[in-house]
Specification:
Its EC number is 2.7.13.3. This is histidine kinase. It is an enzyme of class 2 (transferase). The protein has 696 residues and is of the alpha+beta class. It is built from 17 helices and 23 strands. It has five domains: 129 residues, Rossmann fold; 164 residues, GAF domain (Beta-Lactamase, 2-Layer Sandwich); 89 residues, PAS domain (Beta-Lactamase); 88 residues, Orthogonal Bundle (Helix Hairpins); 177 residues, Heat Shock Protein 90. Helix 12 packs antiparallel against helix 13.
């Protein structure tokens, strides 16, 4: 129930406003002057304030100014009641931070309409603020982890302390901590590696304790129910009052009212967890994906750190072996005959000195063709095949040996550098992966900053029009107000959809997106979908539905299928000229459902086709047509989760001929696990036949 504070020195007006608002189900509190209203606002934290302008001592403008300057109450929607209609008065009210004006005498319908609009706008603002805070926390966590790529375990723990702060703030928690798990005779015991309390991060090395905690959380040993949940990849969360009696007693002793714990797993093995105390359990649905992504990033970083330490240990062992043994040495006469080899050389090749001296098999030879006078000493690296067939890398230092001015022989000193080469290759791969992740983050930040700016500008401009010119619009022009409101609603839906798309991509990348098959009539589904899309399109294009039969049964995930076809049809409509219809064709073949979405739009350049299904990628010929570049990435994920395939054929439009694109989606009508081996083979053959052939 929304809380509304009414501030007015006129008793009749207060009671009238209270009655009208309570009839709509709002919780209403009354204040008879500005001072009392400010006090009640700090106590109650209302969602909306209706305040009279003209009041003794503290007037409405001053009340509004103080409310908007308050760090907690600043987002409260504020409506000023006034009989003053001059432009200067309006400017004064806007400068104080007022969100809306309402003229006396008050019309009940207008009051309720503006209250509803204000509460919707406040809710949207809170959602966007929360989403931005959570995304910022995740970005900060990624930055902290990227900065600690080559850190030692001690340095990594320090980095974990820093990243707990944004996570704890996003969860609105009083305390956050990261623990490792150890097996003991008494059970599985947690060891707190680092913790965050309010503003001051601490670690177990500093011997500092959070003032809110008495050292009971996490319990030692952990309840077995929690361990079982962690092993299943599940969370432990809820209000303390909902926990079992034994657990509730421990949590209440620590003065907690809510708790959230997420498991940390490395290679399917539970190694620890992240805990949040007194957190925003009510916002768990929106908060949990961000926290899971952060936990996954921490696990990946810990795994990478362990692998890096193992690699460093391997390099150290290799270096010790090389330093402790004699390098293999050989000498050759100028004609290439072997004149000397040492024991290390023989051991390395698993050959006797006699076999090597015979010259029947000489794996390594100096570089005879070089100018030995100007280059008497050279270093080179070569990949060689040993007598046992193993491929190894070697570093050789070759020196031409002279007697006075005459070349008498060559000496070569070699060592095995295969492990170093492999480490360099792995490092290059890791750097390429990090570069790819940074590029993805850059694309995401660019998309968010660009795509959010346009709808926010629309919201602000529409709101300004409603505020400045609401009294200048006569009743006959009410449709202009409606258009402004509809623009606000439309771009709000667009921004919500963009956030949903980002979360959907995150679910798919983390493996949390599942295919839940249920019986479905594909013909009825497509007919309803086309009707919905035509309504949204407002008749600008038109959609032609082509069916091979009147009814087609299937067992599919309706939500995933809607994502697939809605995104494909939306793209076809968006990139097609006005008045040009698009086609949706449905047919079946050998227990497969085949969808063709065809348009006569701008087409896809050939150079963009390899990156067509990557997130945040857009074609170079889209011009000013808006978009996030996530639609086809979502389609690709949904198709793959459904066990299907997608292909594309496109021709770019030009002045001489129109272009067009056809996207083909092939999905099994029923789960592949339920098909016979013969049908599985038919599915593979049909998919291969539909996909475009690769050029040799």
């Amino acid at each position: 129930m929304s809380k509304i504070l009414v501030i007015d020195d006129d008793g009749v007006t207060r009671l009238l406003l209270k009655r009208n608002l309570q009839m709509q189900g709002y919780e209403v509190t009354l204040a008879k002057n500005g001072a009392e209203g400010l006090r009640l606002a700090e106590e109650l934290h209302p969602d909306l304030i209706v305040c009279d302008w003209m009041m003794p001592l503290v007037d409405g403008v001053e009340v509004c100014r103080r409310i908007k300057a308050h760090p907690i109450l600043a987002t409260t929607f504020f409506i000023l009641l006034t009989v003053r209609g001059q432009v200067d008065d309006r400017i004064q009210g806007l400068d104080s931070g007022a969100d809306e004006f309402l003229s006396k005498p008050i019309e009940s319908d207008e009051l309720l309409a503006r209250v509803r609009a204000g509460l919707r706008l406040r809710q949207l603002t809170q959602q966007l603020s929360q989403a931005n805070q959570q995304l910022s926390a995740l970005v900060e966590v990624q930055q902290q982890l990227l900065s600690a790529v080559d850190s030692t375990p001690e340095e990594a723990n320090t980095s974990y302390i820093q990243l707990l702060a944004p996570l704890g703030q996003a969860a609105q928690a009083s305390r956050a901590y990261m623990s490792e798990l150890y097996q003991d005779q008494a059970g599985i015991e947690p060891l707190v590696l680092c913790e965050w309390c309010g503003k001051e991060p601490t670690s177990n090395l500093s011997q500092q304790k959070c003032p809110e905690s008495e050292g009971l959380i996490p319990p030692n040993p952990l309840p077995w129910r929690w361990i079982e949940s962690f092993n299943k990849g599940e969370i432990v969360a809820g209000k303390v009052s909902d926990f079992p009696a034994g657990e509730r007693e421990i949590l209440e002793q620590a003065h907690l009212d809510s708790l959230l714990m997420l498991p940390l797993t490395l290679k399917d093995e539970l190694v620890g967890f992240i805990g949040f105390e007194n957190c925003a359990i009510a916002d768990l649905d929106s908060l949990l994906p961000i926290l899971r992504a952060a936990a996954a990033a921490i696990c990946l970083h810990r795994d990478r750190t362990a692998a890096l330490l193992a690699l460093r240990a391997s390099e150290a062992r290799y270096r010790a072996i090389i330093e402790d043994q004699t390098e293999f040495i050989c000498r050759f006469a100028p004609d290439g005959t072997v004149t000397f080899v040492n024991d290390a050389y023989c051991r390395y090749l698993t050959m006797t000195r006699e076999e090597l001296m015979e010259g029947s098999l000489i794996p390594f030879r100096p570089h005879f063709e070089r100018d030995v006078v100007n280059q008497p000493v050279i270093n080179r690296e070569e990949c060689e095949v040993l007598p046992n067939g193993e491929v190894r890398w070697h570093h050789w230092t070759e020196r031409a040996v002279f007697s006075e001015d005459e070349l008498v022989e060559f000496q070569a000193v070699g060592r095995d550098i295969t492990e170093r080469k492999q480490a360099e290759e792995e490092t290059l791969k890791a750097l390429a992966k990090e570069k790819e992740l940074n590029q993805l983050k850059t694309h995401f930040v660019s998309m968010v900053s660009h795509e959010f700016r346009t709808p926010l500008t629309t919201i602000l401009s529409s709101a300004d029009l409603l505020e400045y010119y609401q009294e200048d619009f006569p009743d006959s022009k009410g449709d202009k107000k409606l258009q402004a409101i509809q623009r606000i609603q439309s771009v709000s839906v667009t921004m919500t959809q963009m956030i949903d798309d980002v979360l959907l991509i995150g679910h798919a990348e983390s493996g949390n997106l599942q295919c839940n098959r249920n019986p479905l009539d594909l013909v009825q589904f497509c007919q309803q979908l086309v009707e919905d899309m035509q309504f949204i399109d407002n008749g600008l294009h038109g959609i032609e539905l082509i069916l091979s039969q009147p009814s087609l049964s299937a067992c599919m995930d309706e939500k995933l299928l809607r994502h697939i076809l809605t995104n494909l049809l939306s793209n076809a409509l968006k990139y097609s000229p006005a008045g040009m219809a698009v086609q949706l064709e449905l047919c079946d073949r050998q227990n497969l459902a085949i969808f063709h979405v065809k348009d006569r739009g701008i087409g896809i350049p050939p150079e963009d086709l390899p990156h067509l299904f990557e997130p945040f990628q857009r074609c170079r010929n889209v011009g000013t047509i808006s978009g996030t570049g996530m639609g086809l990435a979502i389609v690709k994920k949904c198709v793959e989760i459904h066990g299907g395939e997608i292909s594309v054929q496109s021709e770019v439009s030009d002045e001489k001929r129109p272009g067009g694109t056809t996207l083909t989606v092939i999905l099994p009508r029923f789960s592949l696990n339920n098909l016979t081996p013969n049908l599985n083979d038919q599915f593979s053959e049909s998919v291969e036949a539909k996909l475009p052939k690769k050029k040799p």
